[in-house]
Design brief:
13 strands, elongated, D-Amino Acid Oxidase, Chain A, domain 2, binds flavin-adenine dinucleotide, 2 domains
């Protein structure tokens, strides 16, 4: 079996791998770039199964890489969506306190939002919260007008289209099983082919630690995944939620907490089978 040779091979056709390939080709159109993806479609993992929220960056520590990159990514995402006719809706969100003990954290989140340069965020009373979301009981909230929604499957599909127009390749059904570095570059084995590249980018999402350990067994990296569950509101109950409703996150956990989001298109319509569990 002959070895296919590239300048850069990217592992994973999620949003990170696709965006990396597209932007590298925009900067250096002569590069020979291929993506290797184990599934038979792009964006089947996190990218195609997330909440579809365009985050504003309110939660992050001011000045941190996360805060800086979230703002930059937010602006670039909206610009890309506008340029490529991808629908989005800057509907805003509320972060809701329901217990007195959450008020200090809510205040901290508000202060971070101000420090991160979010315009128009404001603390709102229980009555003002009800004007926005009539079925929310709160003791106070923060309104974040910048938060929005988009269909990240559509964004990923557009990245894939552009990167291929620019000469990039997407090889689906290629599960990477081995990565060996040498002075000349990197040999990448999949279940059915061997590839060689001068540079290798690992964008395998929740599996990126396993890919890293294929070339460096001693690498001190480990992804700690968490299982989550989605419920889709019964059509008759959709009126209960107008836009995005989040709790004050519990600082004990690295999540935003159980939240309600509106999607641009009904999530279950994107799936091959109807997984709705009405509540
Ligand atoms: C439940 C949930 C909700 C979220 N909500 C939001 C949100 O609302 N807004 C937001 O901005 N972010 C959200 N995120 C985060 C966001 O979805 C992720 O940060 C982003 O999708 C990560 O993209 P990725 O390309 O790194 O990973 P992925 O999309 O997971 O892509 C990794 C790819 O690597 C491939 N791969 C893995 N192993 C191999 C292998 N051995 N060989 C070849 N290919 C391989 C996989 O098949 C996959 O296609 C959410 C995440 C989760 C889990």
């Amino acid at each position: 079996m002959n070895t296919k040779r590239y300048d850069i091979i990217i592992a994973g056709a999620g949003i990170v791998g696709l965006a990396s390939a597209m932007n590298l080709l925009k900067i250096k159109p002569n590069l020979k770039i291929a993506i290797l993806e184990k599934e038979n479609k792009i964006a089947l993992h996190q990218t195609g199964n997330n909440s579809g929220v365009i985050h504003s960056g309110i939660y992050y520590k001011p000045g941190s890489q996360k805060a800086v990159n979230c703002k930059l990514g937010y602006d670039k995402m909206l610009q890309f969506a506008r340029e490529n006719d991808i629908p989005f809706d800057i509907c805003g969100k509320i972060i809701v306190a329901t217990q007195t003990k959450e008020l200090a954290s809510l205040e901290n989140i508000y202060n971070r939002g101000v420090a991160n340069g979010l315009n128009g965020i404001k603390k709102i009373s229980a009555e003002e919260t009800k004007e926005m979301e009539p079925y929310v009981q709160s003791i106070g909230s923060v309104w974040v007008p910048q938060a929005g929604i988009i269909d990240y499957k559509k964004v990923a599909a557009k990245y894939a289209e552009i990167m291929q127009e620019l000469g990039g390749e997407i090889n689906l059904g290629h599960k990477i099983t081995g990565v060996k570095e040498s002075n000349e570059g990197v040999a990448i084995e999949t279940e059915n082919q061997t590839f060689f590249a001068k540079k290798f980018i690992n964008a395998c999402g929740l599996y990126s630690d396993k890919i890293t350990k294929m070339s460096n067994g001693d690498a001190d990296v480990q992804i700690i995944p968490f299982r989550g569950e989605y419920y889709v509101l019964n059509k008759k109950k959709e009126y209960l939620v107008k836009n995005l409703i989040y709790p004050v996150p519990d600082p004990q956990f690295p999540f935003l907490g159980v939240h309600y989001t509106r999607m641009l298109m009904q999530y279950w319509l994107l799936l091959e089978k109807d997984i709705r569990k009405p509540i």
